[in-house]
Amino acid sequence: MLPSQTKTRKSRKAQIAAVALIIAGGVFVTGPAAAHSERYFERQLADYSQRIENGRISGAITFFEGRKLRRQLRRIEQLSVDAFKDGRLSRDEHDVLVDRFAEVDERINAEASDRWRRLGVLPRVGI
Predict the structure, then answer these.
(1) Model confidence, pTM
(2) 8 Å CB contact between 124 and 56
(3) Distance CA 112, CA 51 (A)
(4) pLDDT mean over 115-126
């Protein structure tokens, strides 16, 4: 064997080892990152649910508006569960969830600021 062939084999082995470390490191990095995203979306669901409930308590959101908004949140929750089934979130799934949360945010703001209100003297009805 020539000395140059020995160097080539050693450098090729070093390259393969470096690639293996990078891939293994990527596997360990995606786990916590996915968990962070999952916690973020769970927190978003809880925040929007609380906003709907606060609107219902104050009378800014009617019973029927609250029902529609909660139904929309349940759909987003199901999308989130389906997206995280494999343990990671793809860029497309992330974008879909972010878009859905933006839609529900706009809808909550619209429903809370429209003219439909529960009169303060009337009892709160429904969930």
Answers:
(1) 0.64
(2) yes
(3) 10
(4) 57
